[in-house]
Design goal:
The complex is a heterodimer of chains A (about 180) and B (about 250). Chain A is about 70% helix and about 0% strand. With about 180 residues, chain A is mainly α. Chain A is built from eight helices and no strands. In chain A, about 45% of the residues are buried. Chain B is of the alpha+beta class and about 250 residues long. Chain B is about 30% helix and about 35% strand. The chains are: A mainly alpha (about 180), B alpha+beta (about 250). The interface between A and B is large, with 60 and 47 residues.
């Protein structure tokens, strides 16, 4: 039984209903942008990820497996696109030289950078390896269950838990080292 | 702290513990100051992360995406001729037909894989290969196309270490699914709908899908293999092999 509330919209989109796809886009533009921002900490790259993810999803809609949720699928595309960008960065820049977020004039709501803890948390997130960062993003910012994360990342639930527990430890150690341990 | 204790503590933070887990955790917290301290730190971390404000997508992004979307090509009319129930009843009758298709002489020549357009490659590699073999965990095997006289058989031999789904779609109009024949291995689970055939694989299987082409148009068939929702391989087979390879 298909319980995905998006299934009807996906079916309509496959039949060429652009409005239906527009509804999916409206529903998930923001969460997917947030996933990309948490992964990349770079507004331009995050924008590209959202764009690429939705365009890829639309192109491949006829291959969509209705046993899965559309949100998990688009999330997975966004995470993989983000990791591709991070891997590209790694090839081009030294590991300890992660790009700083640009001063994105058209994103006035990024007020989180204004606080020391907020900036510290984001910096610590960026120091996590991408696979670990992905589980923190999915759990703490997208509210995914272990099973949903396993689905999105294409790994067993056991691996998700192992990565999540390690990621939290790394994050805590990092914040402690920066004097920003959870208050 | 042992692994079980760590699982219980994180499970509490993630609201993944069962009632029995929660009782076990309560007992653990009762006797272990270290566990209480660890749980408190995990809660603080969760609160710190939750306090992070959301990012606002840049204005105009939605419109920019919608502006780039082209209407999809018409849904591929690769459709079950009799509906799935009918096709199931027709399996025995079709078996003889497929045997003919697979083994008859010049009327149904077997394709030389090296002449086919398209290749089966791991999706992440985007490399082309002269063969139609798929060798990308958790699945390996081959797909070939036999045909002639407006009827075609897709022969699939796949070995999957865990369940994978093979999805066939086609841009060729008027292709119809006429039958499905298991040659060896476990029975495959097949579903067909307009434009799409999906076969769920487990273990080692060899089977043939029989397609009829009412319009006489040479078929092109796209195959995608999914492990869960992860694409692990895709390819296009074209009959006849009259155009350069376009493996993805």
């Amino acid at each position: 039984v298909n319980k995905d509330p998006d299934a009807e919209l996906v079916e309509a989109s496959i039949k060429g209903d652009k409005t239906a796809f527009g509804t999916l886009l409206t529903r998930y533009e923001r969460p997917i942008y947030n996933v990309a921002m948490r992964m990349l900490r770079h507004p331009e790259d995050a924008r590209d990820v959202v764009q690429t993810a939705f365009l890829k999803a639309f192109e491949k809609l006829h291959q969509f497996d209705f046993d899965h949720k559309f949100y998990s699928w688009i999330c997975r595309i966004a995470i993989n696109e983000s990791i591709d960008i991070l891997n590209g960065r790694r090839r081009l820049t030294p590991l300890d030289d992660e790009p700083e977020p640009s001063d994105e004039g058209d994103n006035p709501h990024d007020a989180c950078r204004t606080t020391q803890v907020g900036a510290g948390v984001q910096a610590a997130m960026m120091r996590l390896p991408p696979d670990y960062r992905a589980v923190i993003v999915l759990r703490h910012f997208v509210d995914c269950s272990y099973q949903e994360m396993a689905d999105i990342l294409g790994v067993p639930e056991k691996t998700v838990k192992s990565r999540l527990f390690t990621a939290r430890q790394l994050l805590r150690d990092d914040l402690d080292a920066e004097g920003l341990g959870a208050q | 702290m042992d692994q079980r204790a760590i699982e219980l503590l994180h499970g509490d933070i993630d609201q993944e513990n069962s009632p029995a887990d929660q009782r076990e955790l309560a007992a653990l917290l009762e006797r272990s100051p270290e566990a209480r301290c660890e749980l408190e730190e995990l809660r603080r971390l969760a609160v710190t992360l939750r306090a992070e404000p959301e990012f606002e997508p840049p204005p105009g992004l939605r419109e920019a995406i919608l502006g780039q979307i082209q209407p999809l090509a018409p849904v591929i009319p690769l459709r079950p001729r009799r509906g799935w129930a009918g096709a199931a009843l027709a399996l025995a009758a079709t078996a003889a037909g497929v045997a003919l298709i697979l083994h008859r002489g010049p009327e149904f020549p077997e394709l030389d894989p090296s002449t086919l357009a398209g290749t089966m490659v791991p999706a992440s590699g985007h490399a082309t290969s002269p063969s139609l073999r798929l060798d990308s965990a958790p699945v390996s095997g081959a797909i070939s196309l036999h045909g002639g006289d407006g009827r075609y058989a897709i022969e699939v031999t796949l070995d999957a270490s865990r369940p994978v789904a093979l999805i066939a779609t086609s841009p060729t109009p008027a292709l119809e699914l006429e039958g499905f024949v298991r040659i060896s291995g476990e029975p495959a689970e097949l579903s067909a709908e307009d434009g799409r055939i999906r076969v769920l694989h487990t273990g080692s299987q060899r089977y043939a899908l029989v397609l009829g082409d009412g319009a006489g148009a040479p078929p092109a068939i796209d195959f995608s293999v999914y492990d869960g929702d992860q694409l692990v391989g895709e390819a296009r087979l074209r009959w006849p092999a009259d155009t350069p390879g376009r493996g993805r």
